[in-house]
Write a structure and sequence with these properties.
The structure holds 3 protein chains of 3 kinds. Chain A is of the alpha+beta class. Chain A contains 7 helices and 4 strands, in the order ααααβααβββα. Helix content of chain A is 51%, strand content 10%. Chain B has 4 domains: 108 residues, Glutaredoxin; 210 residues, Rossmann fold; 178 residues, Roll (Ubiquitin-like (UB roll)), CATH 3.10.20; 77 residues, Alpha-Beta Plaits, CATH 3.30.70. In chain B, a hairpin with a 5-residue loop joins strand 16 and strand 17. In chain B, helix 9 packs antiparallel against helix 10 and helix 19 packs antiparallel against helix 20.
């Protein structure tokens, strides 16, 4: 999938470019730099890989090789509501895979993908360390423990309802203005 | 005589006096603050706020306390502490309300609502609501104490002693509990003294392999021509172990002190914490701990006037399980792909950027300050002769009281699982304990009396590993568990060496076949041969131990593998492709709709006589219907092989 | 100089010399794919060069020669590991020898002959990568289904240029040799260096059409 940069992405990349200059140009800084970008932009498009390579004066291939090695770095933009389903041992034993499947079915995407409207993305993670609450799913920053397949729909619905509500309010404000 | 004794010392007695003075002042201030807290008679509410507590809703609990206190105008102090290890009780609080006459009380599962209730009824009206307590934190004559409960009394806390008792963000609370006293003491004596104690204690590395920590340090000390660096390995990646994170989040200074002692012992002036970036709270806590220690002059330049310098920093690991391997960890810090390389040279001989490098696990380092404080022989009083000290396990899975448990080495699995952690819930039978995560193995019932120590576990076919323990009940399929771990190691293999890169993929693909009923005659032998070769042929520890889950489950549960292959049957009725849910029409109640609403795929239909049936074509076998079926009816069953499920026809008209 | 015993041959070599290289230089063939002569830190990834020392199979490339070292190259443990490693490599290798430019010059063919095994991954499922060709590099094409991931191309490029323009990318079973695009404003021009192509034991790397060496 070819990623098209949004205008917001471009603004962030530009800012990141100037933040880069504060980092010392040494190879040991490669991962901290990539982490900083991942944190801000939430993914690493090719433009960024090139930017880092150029700054550190190393081939783009090297940056790409390192970035693709680590789980932390993503190459596709995540959804506004990233869903992480824990598949650590405790969650697996308590059927975390069924929770994952339910999210996939409800959203019509597979793990690692983002919905077309960029609202949701699903990711499996290898243990968030809340084993006593298994099975666990994380939506945004909120951890949901003791998940059940029947709770999945509710979680998604809640986000959609809130989204619609915000949308209506936005429209209302706009029409009030006019 | 006295002079001779001091000859070996690097420092003269005047320096020691300076250290005593400087540290004495720091200690006195910490003590003063502690006394002030203690003497203040307002109620204290201790809340566990580490990652697991927050996940369980501890932040909401804290807010509820704060709001209710201010609404009702009650004066109380909220004390944020780390994790106490009792995950089943999250979010928990301990309330000290001395004016009420009650001892400090431990409350489990304190939701926001309960917090409001306790504020009103206990803090305002003096009724501790005994039906909500777990126990008192000290022996008393009024209410039962938690120490009558073996989950508390059978633990022996050396490393986690202060976890859940002190505020991890306040260095003074650690110092007031004698923290950094080992550090100040060490700085007054020559570095070999530290090494001598650690060697004498017999401390073995808690990261997995159990190598003698003192020996590792000694090897680095011998590299006199090299500059040195010490690293705390907190790249915990085992999917089911989280004690390193908990310790860093709950008592970072004890680990920091251990790391400083290690640096001093080998003569390093640089120290690093390698922490997973997925552990943001741990990263923040340790960063804060470092800057507080810097400000106090406990680390930095000319520490406490001793002339010893030590710089500390944090490196965030980017999430690759293989980076727990020393050589891969070093490469990742250098900005490369974490693909392990052959040892020797050991990191102590040539490590990070050519420096002599010592890498120790969080738990190992956290054991060092108590050893130095109380002496090597004190440490040896706990545990077994070959494995002194304590073991920390994260016990999870099908167990009543999951969480972190610190026990003396040598305690049996039975004691740990049944006495301390309360056994298996729902009257199910124990099947196996998976110990040591992806590198470990599954031990069946026969091994329940095996003592937990490095060597006994290896003998039994498992390993201490990182200390993850998953308790499995009779509903768990061992082939599926082996598949789960292989799936993990296969995904986390660095891809460098042939055996691990391709071999684990084939192991996984065979296991996947078995769990969907496509096993073939000869698959078991293939699994054994491949596992054996991967174990002997791989480059690093990850590959060498990756087949362990397969090998142990084959050894102890071979008949389950055979059933999958020969009969297409999963004896635990857990493999989804090999099992089916069905509704027993004799038990199903007319008109009850409990199973209909919860089915995520609308596979439940109503039969002609208003009972329910499951459309096997649509069913995804999530088991929600079984959970929701009222206990009075208990009409839903799971069976393997799938074709044994009675066929219930969907009424024609519903189909249209 | 020290003396070592390899099978029944006494060999003289420099103390501390690499064992694999010593054997190869003395006409004793041990299957290998990833070893580069005189490398300080052997890559030790292909896991083919097993020999037995003190009853344990070890990779010869990771061992140093010392006085009185006794080495066996042909024990059942050694052969079992070598054959498994070789079968594993074949299970991800596109076997089309007749159409392959490496035919008769291929290290895999040599190893098969030496181990007296066929070029089929007996008993293992074959899994090829799709797409098999990586043309991300400005002038190189890497055939991922031929590549054995020995990493020699990355090593020689690094040695020659100080940086490698080919790299390992991704991880685990998905690991590939990749030549990811270079920064737009500093195009990589072909200098005539074909070290990576020449060193590849299975000829998995070739020049793109229109680029002349």
């Amino acid at each position: 999938m070819d990623v098209i940069l949004t205008s917001e992405d471009k603004v962030i990349i530009e800012k990141l470019g100037s933040r880069l200059t504060q980092c010392e140009k040494v190879k040991t800084n490669l991962i901290p730099i990539l982490q900083m970008i991942q944190e801000e932009l939430k993914y690493l498009p090719p433009e960024v890989i090139k930017m880092v390579a150029k700054y550190l004066e190393i081939p783009g291939s090297e940056v790409y090789g390192v970035a693709t090695f680590y789980n932390q770095f993503k190459f596709n933009p995540p959804g506004k509501n990233p869903i992480k389903v824990c598949l650590g041992t405790a969650c697996h034993v308590r059927a975390g895979d069924i929770i994952l499947e339910n999210f996939e079915r409800k959203l019509g995407i597979s793990e690692g993908q983002t919905t077309e409207d960029r609202e949701f993305s699903i990711e499996r993670v290898a243990c968030v360390g809340c084993c006593a609450l298994a099975p666990v799913a994380i939506m945004g920053d909120t951890v949901h423990g003791h998940m059940a397949p029947s709770k999945v729909e509710g979680l998604i619905l809640r986000v959609q309802v809130e989204h619609e509500k915000a949308e209506r309010e936005r429209q209302k404000i706009e029409s009030d203005r006019q | 005589m006295k002079k001779q004794k001091e000859k070996g010392k690097k420092l003269n007695p005047i320096d020691n006096k300076i250290i005593d003075e400087k540290f004495g002042a720091i200690f006195a201030e910490a003590q003063r603050r502690k006394k002030e807290r203690q003497n203040n008679s307002i109620p204290k509410i201790h809340i566990g706020l580490s990652t697991c507590g927050i996940a369980a809703g501890a932040m909401e609990t804290k807010t509820a306390f704060e709001e209710t206190l201010s609404q009702r105008g009650i004066e109380a102090q909220i004390h944020c502490v780390g994790c106490i290890g009792h995950c089943y009780a999250e979010p928990w609080v301990i309330i000290e309300n001395s004016e009420s006459g009650f001892p400090p009380i431990f409350y489990p599962q304190v939701t926001a609502g309960k917090a409001k209730m306790l504020t009103k009824l206990y803090l305002e009206e003096g009724d501790p609501r005994l039906e909500h307590i777990l126990g008192a934190m000290e022996e008393n004559e009024m209410i039962p104490s938690v120490w009558e409960f073996s989950r508390f009394s059978k633990e022996k806390r050396i490393v986690m002693d202060l976890c859940g008792k002190i505020d991890p963000d306040d260095i003074n609370e650690y110092i007031a509990e004698d923290g950094y006293s080992s550090w100040a003491k060490a700085l007054k004596s020559p570095p070999d003294e530290v090494l001598k104690q650690v060697l004498g204690s017999g401390l073995r590395g808690r990261g997995g392999a159990g190598f003698l920590t003192g020996k590792k340090w000694e090897l680095a000390l011998k590299q006199t021509h090299l500059e040195k660096i010490v690293i705390c390995n907190a790249d915990e990646g085992d999917p089911g172990a989280y004690m390193d994170r908990t310790i860093l989040e709950s008592n970072p200074h004890q680990v920091l002190e251990g790391l400083a002692l290690c640096a001093y012992a080998i003569g390093a002036h640089k120290a690093l914490f390698y922490v997973r970036a997925e552990y943001p709270l741990a990263v923040k806590t340790i960063q804060n701990a470092i800057s507080q220690a810097m400000e106090s002059g406990i680390i930095g330049k000319d520490i406490l006037g001793s002339g010893f310098d030590l710089e500390m920093d944090v490196f965030q690991g980017s999430g690759a399980f293989v980076c727990g391997e020393e050589t891969a960890l070093i490469l990742s810090m250098e900005g490369s792909r974490g693909m392990p390389y052959h040892r020797p040279p050991y990191p102590a001989e040539r490590g990070f950027q050519g420096l002599s490098t010592v890498i120790n696990n969080v738990k190992t380092l956290a054991a060092v300050p108590p050893i130095l404080k109380n002496g090597a022989s004190w440490y040896r009083q706990t545990g077994t002769p070959e494995s002194p000290g304590t073991a920390i396990f994260s016990v999870v899975g099908n167990v009543t009281h999951p969480g972190l448990v610190e026990i003396p080495m040598g305690v049996t699995l039975r004691t740990l699982i049944f006495d301390i952690c309360g056994g298996i819930p729902d009257k199910k039978k124990f099947k196996a304990a998976q110990i040591g995560g992806p590198s470990g193995g599954c031990l069946p019932e026969e091994f329940l009396d095996t003592p937990i120590d490095f060597d006994s576990l290896i003998e039994a076919g498992a390993m201490m590993g990182s200390g993850g323990m998953v308790v499995l009940d009779e509903d768990t399929c061992m082939v599926d568990v082996a598949k789960y771990f292989l799936d993990f190691t296969q995904k986390e293999s660095c891809g460098k060496c042939t055996f691990c890169r391709i071999g684990t993929w084939h192991l996984l693909s065979i296991l996947q076949r078995l769990t969907i009923g496509e096993g073939q005659e000869g698959d078991i032998e293939k699994l054994e041969q491949l596992s054996h070769d991967i174990k002997n042929g791989s480059l690093c520890g990850l590959g060498k131990t990756a087949p362990n889950p397969v090998l142990t489950s084959l050894k102890y549960f071979r008949e389950e593998y055979e059933a999958h292959i020969k009969e297409g049957c999963c004896p635990a009725a857990s493999c989804r492709a090999l099992s089916a849910y069905y509704i027993d029409l004799d038990k199903c109640a007319r008109g009850c709709d409990a199973c209909v609403g919860c089915c995520p795929v609308d596979a439940v239909f109503t039969t002609s006589n208003r009972k329910k049936g499951i459309d096997q074509q649509l069913c995804v076998k999530c088991g929600e219907c079984k959970v929701h079926c009222p206990p009075d009816y208990n009409a839903i069953f799971r069976i393997s092989p799938a074709h044994l499920a009675p066929i219930i026809e969907r009424p024609k008209e519903e189909n249209q | 100089m020290v003396q070592i015993l390899v099978d029944n041959n006494i060999i003289e070599a420099e103390n501390g010399a690499n064992l694999l290289q010593t054997c190869l230089e003395n006409g004793i063939y041990i299957p290998n794919l990833c070893y580069l002569n005189d490398s300080q830190e052997p890559f030790a990834a292909c896991r083919l060069c097993f020999v037995e020392i003190d009853g344990h199979p070890v990779a010869a490339c990771t061992q140093k020669v010392s006085e009185g070292l006794q080495v066996q190259t042909d024990t059942s443990a050694v052969r079992s590991l070598q054959k498994t490693a070789f079968r594993l490599l074949l299970s991800v290798h596109e076997i089309k020898c007749k159409e392959c430019s490496a035919n008769k010059r291929c290290d895999l063919q040599r190893i098969a002959k030496f181990l007296k095994v066929g070029l089929k991954p007996k008993g293992l499922e074959i899994r090829l990568k799709d797409p098999g060709l990586d043309s991300g590099h400005p002038y190189l094409i890497v055939d991922q289904n031929r590549c054995v991931l020995c990493g020699k191309c990355v090593q020689v490029c690094l040695q020659k240029h100080g940086h490698s323009y080919l790299t390992f990318a991704k991880r685990g079973f998905d690991t590939v040799i990749s030549g990811y695009i270079e920064p737009d404003d500093i195009p990589l021009t072909f200098s005539g260096c074909t070290l990576c192509i020449d060193i590849c034991p299975v000829m998995a790397i070739s020049l793109k059409e229109g680029i002349k060496s």
